[in-house]
């Protein structure tokens, strides 16, 4: 999760999020270079007496300042498109989870198992045990195995919600009557926190998401206990 007053992103927990962080750094580098150049040019403009006041056109510089921004845009667009198509790549994952948004909790269905579904409610502040996070902890974690591709189907049953977990690089709209598909492959074990990212009603802030990436044995044990309930 994010630290208090954290400015940057959370550490990546999926290969896709790692790619997104690299793209962000790449784009920011371009922004810094352009900002520095513009600032330098403005300073020159304000401190240098004007010469060439009779010049009507300058073909060379106009050619350069038309083509150069286009090249810079292409240098940002190409890696961006690459990640866009990477994120779309689902293939045939061994596990599928269905996340259903409700006002104001999430329901999860593990459709590879018979009858494995549970609701995930936020733990109210007065019920929190020491060391757990206020407004982020839920009563049932959503467990996924580490290093295993997982398909997440996202939908809603009442209004628009959005299933978002920043460390996993996921933000998928939950739309009633629609089934959106996304994928995640947790690259390390851990707890990854998210929140509904669509203004969905008065308790919008109180339907957090807790993804627990665990090794396969832990996942198997957990799924066995969930099936017994
Ligand atoms: Cu919501």
UniProtKB/TrEMBL annotation:
SUPFAM superfamilies: Cupredoxins (SSF49503), Cytochrome c oxidase subunit II-like, transmembrane region (SSF81464). It catalyses: 4 Fe(II)-[cytochrome c] + O2 + 8 H(+)(in) = 4 Fe(III)-[cytochrome c] + 2 H2O + 4 H(+)(out). Its cofactor is Cu cation. GO terms for biological process: ATP synthesis coupled electron transport. The chain crosses the membrane at residues 27-46, 66-85. One of its GO terms (molecular function) is copper ion binding. It holds the Pfam family COX2. Residues 1-91 form the Cytochrome oxidase subunit II transmembrane region profile domain. Residues 92-225 form the Cytochrome oxidase subunit II copper A binding domain. It is a multi-pass membrane protein. It comes from the Eukaryota. PROSITE patterns: COX2, COX2_CUA, COX2_TM. Binds a copper A center. Its main location: mitochondrion. It is found in: Mitochondrion inner membrane. GO terms for cellular component: mitochondrial inner membrane. Keywords: Copper, Electron transport, Magnesium, Membrane, Metal-binding, Mitochondrion, Mitochondrion inner membrane, Respiratory chain, Translocase, Transmembrane, Transmembrane helix, Transport. Component of the cytochrome c oxidase, the last enzyme in the mitochondrial electron transport chain which drives oxidative phosphorylation. The respiratory chain contains 3 multisubunit complexes succinate dehydrogenase (complex II, CII), ubiquinol-cytochrome c oxidoreductase (cytochrome b-c1 complex, complex III, CIII) and cytochrome c oxidase (complex IV, CIV), that cooperate to transfer electrons derived from NADH and succinate to molecular oxygen, creating an electrochemical gradient over the inner membrane that drives transmembrane transport and the ATP synthase. PANTHER family: CYTOCHROME C OXIDASE SUBUNIT 2, CYTOCHROME C OXIDASE, SUBUNIT II. Belongs to the cytochrome c oxidase subunit 2 family. This is Cytochrome c oxidase subunit 2. The lineage of its organism: Eukaryota, Metazoa, Chordata, Craniata, Vertebrata. The gene is COX2.
């Amino acid at each position: 999760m994010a630290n208090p007053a954290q400015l940057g992103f959370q550490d990546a927990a999926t290969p896709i999020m790692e790619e997104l962080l690299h793209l962000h750094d790449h784009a920011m580098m371009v922004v810094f270079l352009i900002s520095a150049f513009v600032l330098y040019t403005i300073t020159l403009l304000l401190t240098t007496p004007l010469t060439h006041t009779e010049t009507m056109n300058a073909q060379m510089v106009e050619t350069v300042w038309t083509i150069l921004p286009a090249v810079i845009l292409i240098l940002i667009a190409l890696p961006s498109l690459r990640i866009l198509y990477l994120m779309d790549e689902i293939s045939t994952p061994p596990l599928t989870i269905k996340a259903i948004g409700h006002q104001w909790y999430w329901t999860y269905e593990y459709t590879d198992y018979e009858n494995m579904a549970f609701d995930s409610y936020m733990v109210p502040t007065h019920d929190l045990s020491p060391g757990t996070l206020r407004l982020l902890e839920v009563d049932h974690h959503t467990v996924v195995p580490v290093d295993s591709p997982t398909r997440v189907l996202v939908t809603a049953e009442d209004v628009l919600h959005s299933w978002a977990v920043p460390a996993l690089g996921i933000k998928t709209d939950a739309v009633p009557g629609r089934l959106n598909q996304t994928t995640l492959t947790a690259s390390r074990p851990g707890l990854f926190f998210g929140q509904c990212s669509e203004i969905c009603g008065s308790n919008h802030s109180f339907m957090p998401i807790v993804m627990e990436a665990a090794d396969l044995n832990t996942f198997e044990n957990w799924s066995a206990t969930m099936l017994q309930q």
